[in-house]
Design brief:
By secondary structure, this protein is an alpha+beta fold. It has two domains: about 5-145, no CATH class; about 155-210. It is built from seven helices and seven strands; from the N terminus they run βαββαβαββαβααα. It has helices at about 20-25, 55-60, 90-95, 120-130, 155-165, 175-185, 190-210; strands at about 10-15, 35-40, 45-55, 75-85, 100-105, 110-115, 135-145. It has a seven-stranded antiparallel β-sheet, sandwiched between helices.
Length: about 210
């Protein structure tokens, strides 16, 4: 893992963002209260949004905009990728080595973003960038990874914390092993082995009294 993620933070903010291209695009189709479950930049200069839609909402999407849903998602929801040039908020989050956990429109022009940042400086820079651009930002939550001496190594603790906050242990997963490994700049096989060994240490610690 890169040293960049030694002191990560989990942040939840509300941003007044009436210029969001995705909201405008879907509002034109009669769709509101959207949920974004992933956000990625591409080499082509566009931002890809993975938006989770209900079965009724899918019917309102033109066929030429539809894409295949990622594997492992429940049939009741249909995640689809959509591309745009990205807004100031999306670009601010992506440009500071952060990764989005979710984004949800809570009311007209206001979006709630949950994301991970590698350092407090990255968090401060994102907030500063948004405020300088004229966005009203309300910080709802900010939690820091704090190492604890005990069962796991600090590296294992940090990865488990990031995986937990990022939704790796949820069903369906908000982030897969490959995506999480890519964000942390390590191999998927390495990440899988770290999680396997960490899980074993946790189980051994949990059951140590029974075993003894």
């Amino acid at each position: 893992m890169r040293d960049l993620w030694r002191k990560p933070y989990h942040v939840v903010i509300e941003v007044e963002n009436p210029h969001c291209r995705m909201l405008k695009r879907f509002a034109g189709l009669g769709l509101r209260n959207l949920k974004v479950v992933d956000l990625r930049s591409s080499s082509l200069g566009v931002v890809k949004h993975l938006i989770e839609l209900g079965s009724d909402q899918v019917k309102q999407i033109p066929d030429d905009l539809k894409t295949a849903a990622p594997r492992g998602k429940p049939s009741g929801k249909s995640p689809m990728w959509f591309e745009s040039e990205g807004c100031e908020v999306c670009n601010a989050i992506l440009s500071h080595d952060a990764f989005l956990i979710s984004g949800k429109s809570v009311e007209k022009g206001i979006i709630m973003y949950s994301f991970m940042v590698p350092t407090f400086e990255a968090y401060s820079s994102i907030i500063s960038t948004l405020e300088k651009a004229g966005h009203k930002v309300n910080v709802l939550r900010m939690g820091q990874f704090e190492p604890k001496k005990g069962v796991l190594t600090e590296k294992q603790e940090r990865i488990f914390w990031l995986a937990l906050k990022g939704g790796f242990f949820e069903y369906p997963r908000k982030v897969g092993i490959r995506e999480l490994a890519l964000k942390l700049d390590i191999r998927p096989s390495t990440l899988s082995e770290i999680i396997r060994r960490g899980t074993r240490r946790l189980l051994e610690h949990y059951f140590e009294k029974e075993v003894s």
